[in-house]
Write a structure and sequence with these properties.
about 10% strand, little secondary structure, elongated, about 130 residues, two-stranded antiparallel ribbon, two-stranded antiparallel sheet
Amino acid sequence: MSLAINLTLASIDACEHSLTASEELPLPVSQSYTGRGMGRFLAQGKPKASVTCDKYPRICRAKGSGGPDCCNKQCVDVQMDRLNCGVCGNKCKYAETCCEGHCVNLSYNDKHCGKCSHSCSKKGSCAYGLCSYA
């Protein structure tokens, strides 16, 4: 333990010599600290503009995109997106899900019972997400 303390004190003493005016490290002139909230990387220059679908709508058709439709500069699928169901900006209610572009309640919809496109038989009805529940 005492060896570790001695080594630490020795390394601190070696680092504490004062720099003369000619030995001071130069600070980069082009970089300046701009204040709170902005780091040095953001202060170096303007961030590059990202490619958005409002300018390039074809990017929504690319593999791995959020969907084929562009809503509020984001690629979405209006057939399944709860915040853009059927058209951009059409939000489904709390208990509803977007199925085929329509807001439906999966607990009581005979055409979408329990999940999208799961129909109950003609005689059956949907209750609590189950066909012919009774």
